[in-house]
Amino acid sequence: MSHVxxxxxxxxxxxxxxxxxPMGLLSLLAGWARWLELRLPREGSVRAxxxxxxxxxxFGLVLVLYREx
Length: 69
Prior knowledge:
Shape: elongated
Number of helices: 2
Helix content: over 70%
Strand content: under 5%
Number of strands: 0
Radius of gyration: 15 Å
Low-confidence stretches: none
């Protein structure tokens, strides 16, 4: 689901767009890797299990550094 931010300041809008893209991609990566970890057989799930934790950590770091203008 997508959403829109109504911002009159171009700089503030730019910061929001630049931070929302990595957050969306990292959340997709973490969710997909976790799903694969739970669904794949033991041999394949180990690699996926190593991906979702760091992706979630990177998402948190993006949130810590998030700013709106």
